[in-house]
Amino acid sequence: MTDNTQFAVNHSDSTDKLSQVFDILEKTSIVVFEWSIGPGIPVKYVSKNISSYGYSAEDFLSGKIDYWDFVHKDDAEKTKKIIYEKRASRAKEYKHIYRVVCKDGSIRWVEEWTIWERDENGNPTSEKGIIRDITEQKETAIKLQLSEERYRKLFENACALICTFDKYGNFISINNACSEITGYSKDELKNMNIFDLLVLKESQKKSYKKRLWDLVSRMQNKNIEVTILNKNKKRIILEGRLIIIDDNYFTSEIQAVLQDVTLRKEAENKIYHLSYHDKLTDLYNRAYFDETLERMWKLKQFPYSLIMGDMNGLKSTNDFYGHKTGDKLIQAMADILRKCCRKTDIIARIGGDEFAIILPNCSGKEALKICKRIKQMCMQYDDDEIKPDIALGYSTIEDSSKTNDDLLLEADRRMYLDKACIQKI
């Protein structure tokens, strides 16, 4: 076989292979173009699958459709400028994204990849390229961007404190409410750790960090209530949820969505306090006394003692000096009981002139000593207007052989004996 024959065979094979490539390309969304080098951008070649945009190859080859008319009018000038600049800058290739207008008027996004062949002086001799329909990807990206923008606006403008931090507690992102509630700027917070804000003893921080790591390792969201100290050293109570955010089981961050519930908690605490305290003396009331006594029996917290007290002279004080003076007498009695009892004792006003004291881990002997202290302090009370006095009785439970009813009966019996003695005097 001669060299010419071999060349012809090789050329024929190459042409066949190139034809096969073009056949394959025309079955895809990739459209091949070749443009003339010169003024404008006349089309020398376009693959038949340009029909997917509603045009025929002849529309472009005949000049019936100018390529710049194919490009969306809002993108045409920018695209022209870039292509001409790249053509003049001796670039070999360039990728660009823009919109095109289909024959039916619909708009699609395409990615163009342009390749220039140049002579030895760098002048372009050939300008070829492909355009690929990326409408679906672009619209998805736009939707994602819009979604991210909406989320960012919600994040920034939410009334709730929203922040994200890593598993070590270092802040990653902070919304406006986070800055407003804590009193720290976003820049300050980004240089802080969540544990810098939490009201915790140093000994508690270690256990909290462990609990945080446990939540992360178990991928477990959790409702929480925490107290923080803001920049002005004011305690703020926050309530909400910790949400573990992971990427293919690789935890990247933890998000906290929290509401400032300080005022609500203060109101709840006030209501709780009022429900278990006497308004006049701020001692515990009958409800708390009954619940505590029952709880101590159920838990078998033996021994414990009880002192029952009934004030002397309250009715006559009210009758002769008025209820304002009577209230002063009750308050004076409450102060005496506080001073004579231990910090662990539960002092309650259970009636108009009746008091009761629960003494945990207290023997009868100790209870009697406290009764004597109360009596002595009443005698030493120095006030020309009022003179506190009280009849007292005590009782002790050593074990479960005795009930609270027995305790109350015995304390009451001793109290009435004491009152009878006082009245005789």
Features:
425 residues; alpha+beta; Beta-Lactamase; Alpha-Beta Plaits; 3 domains; five-stranded antiparallel β-sheet; 15 helices; 14 strands; 26% strand
CATH superfamily of the largest domain: Reverse transcriptase/Diguanylate cyclase domain
Separate helix tally: 15
Give me the oligomer status: single chain
Q: What pattern of helices and strands is seen along the backbone? A: HEEHHHEEEHEEHHHHEEEHHEHHEEHEH
**Largest sheet, order of strands side by side?**
2-1-5-4-3
- Ranges where pLDDT stays below 50 over 5 or more residues in a row are 6-12
The helix/strand class is alpha+beta
Q: What does the radius of gyration come to?
A: 44 Å
Total count of domains: 3
Q: Report the biggest beta sheet as strand number plus sense, adding barrel if it closes.
A: 5 strands, antiparallel
